[in-house]
């Protein structure tokens, strides 16, 4: 059984949400959608690093918020959307320039008006680089 009320494939999400957005600018790509999770990845190149040649923490948060927001929207009834209320992140290990960071988003709570998501980012070697939690408010689209 799936949690998605507005299901979409990774390819459909990438086509819809990449052009002229921060996702496209940073090369964020959804790679897989499961029954209750969504995964994505992002290269780590000159657009993404801080002066020491490792992934900038703020860019990690962009990836985590992207995964959580997309998941939240897919859980909404038609005519409703999600807006971020709060995001936090703990940066555990550096991701070097030239690598790729991959994320998996899973639900903590999917309520009627608030969703909470857990997002884990991993380096290419499988090591956990960042854990994040995103809270979204569910709003009616005007």
Automatic annotation (TrEMBL):
One Pfam family linked to the record: 4HBT
InterPro entries in the cross-refs: HotDog_dom_sf, PAAI_dom, Thioestr_dom
SUPFAM superfamilies referenced in this protein's UniProt entry, alphabetically: Thioesterase/thiol ester dehydrase-isomerase (SSF54637)
All residue ranges annotated as the Thioesterase domain in the record: 52-130
Keywords linked to the UniProt accession: Hydrolase
NCBIfam families: unchar_dom_1 (TIGR00369)
Family: Belongs to the thioesterase PaaI family.
Protein name: Hotdog fold thioesterase
């Amino acid at each position: 059984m799936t949690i998605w009320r507005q299901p979409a494939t990774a390819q459909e999400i990438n086509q819809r949400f990449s052009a002229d957005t921060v996702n496209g600018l940073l090369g964020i790509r959804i790679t897989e959608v499961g029954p209750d999770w969504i995964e994505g990845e992002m290269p780590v190149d000159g657009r993404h690093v801080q002066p020491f040649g490792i992934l900038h923490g703020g860019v990690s948060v962009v990836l985590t918020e992207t995964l959580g927001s997309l998941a939240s929207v897919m859980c909404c009834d038609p005519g409703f959307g999600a807006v971020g209320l709060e995001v936090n992140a703990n940066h555990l290990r550096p991701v070097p320039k030239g690598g790729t960071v991959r994320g998996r988003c899973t639900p903590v709570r999917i309520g009627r008006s608030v969703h909470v998501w857990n997002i884990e980012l991993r380096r290419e070697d499988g090591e956990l680089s960042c854990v994040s939690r995103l809270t979204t408010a569910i709003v009616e689209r005007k």
